[in-house]
Amino acid sequence: MPEILLDINNIVFDYNKGGRALDGVDFAVASGEFVALAGRNGSGKTTLTRLAMALLKPTSGSITLQGKNTSAMTPADMAHSIGYVFQNPDRQIFRDTVAKEVAYGPEQLKFTPEAVNEAVSKALSMTGLTEAADSFPRTLSRGQKQKVAIASAIAMQPKMLILDEPTSGQDPWEAQNLMELLVGLNKQGITIILVTHDMELIAEYTTRAVVLDKGCKVFDGTPTALFDGSQDIAKWGLIPPAAVALSQQLNGINSTDAAELTGLVSRAINQRRENHA
User: Which PANTHER family does the entry mention (predicted)?
Assistant: First the structure.
C-alpha cells in the first residue's frame, strides 16, 4: 500500500476578523498520486495549500507530512517533504542565472558543494533546462520561468510538489509542455498536487480530483466520476471540459444516465491521455 505523504485531518481555519475559510476538510494524498485541488475563487484552495506548507496554523485539526505534524517540522524538514510553486514564477525567482537560482535551495539546506552541483544538474535535466543554465531568468518566457521554479523546488528533493495554477499566462503549447513535464515528474515518483480551476487539465492529466466549495470538501474521486453527469458541478462554479460537454450534446444522453455517460467520458479522457503518453 502506498505511503500516505500528506494527511489533512478535519481542518478548520477561521480568519482573525471572523469568518470561516475551511470547515472540516479531510483527505489524504498517497505517494505517487497526481491530484487536482479544484474549486472556484474563494473556495479555500489557497488557504489549504498555505496550511499544508505550514505558512498558516489551523484553528483546529491537524496536517501531517510523512507522519510528522507540520507544526513541529523545521523548514528543512518541510523542504525535503514538500515543494511549492507559485502561480507567478516572478515571485520566487531572484538570482542572475538559472543555475544559481536552482542552487539556492540546496545551499540553504547545507548540501555539500558536490551535492549542490549534482542536485542542480539533475533538476535542470529533469525540467529540460540544461541548455539554459547560464541564462538570466527574467529574460525567459513565462513557461520557462515556471520550469525554473519547478527545478528550484525539485532540487531540494521533495517527495511532493504543490503547484498553484502553473499554466496561468501561458500559450497552449507552453501549457501542454508544462503539463507533460509534470506527468513525467510524477512517473519518476514525485507526487503532484495541482491547484487549478481548469477542468480540461483535470480531465486530461490528473488521476484524482478534490473539489472545495465554500470551505468544504464537496467531491473526492476520479475525473471520470466528476464529469460523468452524476455530479451537478455547476453549483460548485465548475464548467465541464469542452469534449465532455460536446459528447453529451452529440449523443443526446440524459445527464442522469450515469452508466452510459461514464463509459463515454472514460473513453474521451483515455483517448486524450493516450495522445500525450
Answer: HEAVY METAL TRANSPORTER
